[in-house]
Input
Amino acid sequence: GNTLKELSNHHQIITITHLPQIASLADDHYSIEKISKKDRVISSIKKLDEKEQVNEVAKLISGEKITDKSISTAQELIGLNRY
Output
């Protein structure tokens, strides 16, 4: 994760991850979603605000059921990696 963060100082890095330790290092977060409708698959991408970033990292920590503990841990991870 730290190697990617260092590279991002000089290059644009786009990473898809399911690891909260990596996701918490990102400057910007996007949610990518695939929806299957009949014979088509539709993909959408959305830039997340700070609260949504915390919630997505919390989901990586605890699964779909976000807990107060996972939110706290996500905030801590993001906070530690921002400064």
In short: The chain has a mean pLDDT of 90. The first strand starts at residue 30 and ends at 37.
